[in-house]
Amino acid sequence: MQFKLNAKFTPKGDQPKAIEKLVEGLQKGDRYQTLLGVTGSGKTFTIANVIEKVQKPTLIIAHNKTLAAQLCSEFRTFFPDAAVEYFVSYYDYYQPEAYLPNTDVYIEKDLEINMEIERLRHAATQALIYRKDVIIVASVSCIYGLGNPDVYKKTLLTLGEGFEESRDYILQRLVEMYFTRSEVLERGKFRVHGQTLEIMPADQEVIIRVEFDGDLIAKITRFEAVSMKNLGTEKSITIYPAKHFVVDDETTQKAITQIEKELEERLDVLEKNGKLLEAERLRRRTKYDLEMMREIGYCSGIENYSRYLTNREPGTPPYTLLDFFPKDFLMVIDESHVTVPQIGAMFEGDKSRKTSLIDYGFRLPSAYDNRPLKFPEFESHINQLIFTSATPGKYEKEKSEQVVEQIIRPTGLVDPETEIRPTENQIQNLIPEIVDRAKKKERVLVTTLTKKMAEELSEYLKEAGVKAEYLHSEVDTLDRVGILENLRRGTIDCLVGVNLLREGLDLPEVTLVAILDADKEGFLRSDVSLIQTIGRAARNVKGKVILYADRITGSMKRALDETDRRRARQIKYNIENKITPKTIEKAIESIVDHELNPQVTREFIDLESIEDLPAVIRQKTDEMKIAAKNLEFEKAAVIRDEVVQLRKLKIK
Questions:
Q1: Annotation-wise, does 40 bind a ligand?
Q2: 113 and 222: one domain?
Q3: What is one GO cellular-component annotation here (predicted)?
């Protein structure tokens, strides 16, 4: 299939020229280009037009999950028939393994996986295998190890009506693909009742029922996972592995031999250096891991042996999402002034943590190869790349064959007015501004310097009668998405945050951005940060920015000068072309469609269509217990009410 852009509007302002230049650059083979587009100039729409014209599978990298979710939603609107997928870290909570030698404290790895995001990750890699019209919107999670794509592809299981396959052979294959047997069906599990096999794939909310007649597959039927509504029969179906990291028995046995050899060599080094405690610790821990791998093919922390399990040489880069793409793909790095440094910092941060673990006998040196890509390795994966930013960094400018400017907005909107006010009584000064805008159904963003300040200010505003909420990096991914939707819908009038409010958040209802302590020179108040924050008010014709400061810093001066320069050019263009500025109109979509909100499906359960009622009740009861265990009591209460309804139906 081909990319076909679906949009109610055509390119305007600087967009037509920018699209033409970027496409021309790609067609003549430019490897690096930069789209320097001011906030609200429609950089996303420009990139969508470029994708349609060049027809290449595309990877878009954003610097946080919230921005990635928003971009994914927008690209799904632009390309409803294409595979637009979301790929971010699936950890709701992650404490990496670490050792602190100064205090002799070992911290075990602790994590909590979000199964919904894990499903979306599987959907992303699977789309890359069987489609060309693919756009993956990812965070920097895409440069971390993911498993060998060639092995992943070879492990696929195709089932078809009339195929001669014994039930036991298929069960064995499912186990090799990391599916587990369970009476309660969840993603990545299967169950067997006589001649009937039911599978729940890792990437879908469906159950696949395979019915056998001896060693012959007689029928394949798909059912909606919760209601068991019959979705129809299939002539054939492909099952993908339940995990990205797939290893066969032969590779595991070979890896065990190699790990044993490395262990002996490392023990020799430690003992010769008098590190007897470290040697004994390493021997005990590694032997235990090897025993687990022999018995069940898996051990806790198995990723630390990934070099052997993926047949890589020492020091070679891990397989990542980038390896799932065809060679001729397009990469876009959004908000590149933040994302590029983030990509570059990942390797060193990982290495420094591993060094202590290896030096003190918690891990073998091969654990170094379980890592994100080094920056030069990341660059080697680049076929053609477009950086997008309102404030591109030195790296982007030096690398790019051309920098394409997009200063004029299609809507005629100009950069917002700016005003400097003293910091004394800044909150008391701000509250009437928020209240005034709330009455007009407008929204306000407030940026603070710390997370604690954001939380305390939001509480203070609530006590003052303002519908306020805070947003920062410790808020769960899906909760962040919901908070932003609530701001747009008017459930919240004021959002208080730190640097999450800087890049890429598309909130046209916002008419005021307040920057507290704007004169505190530093990363969060640099000229780049200030320009980006000022840009949050550039999507509404009433946009205004108040900077609370007692002096004008160098960063403030540069940011205000650049804002004034752009504003003057935009006003001049509007006058010359007789354009009246209009606020951006944008539908309020549930970010990343309904896929990030499993509760959406609950609203549409057709109780009359449920066939296997006891199984559904068991499944829902398990969901309720899990929600309660995770302290998600509101969610647990919703599921409890469903279970009560289902039990009433059962009695009837």
A1: yes
A2: no
A3: cytoplasm
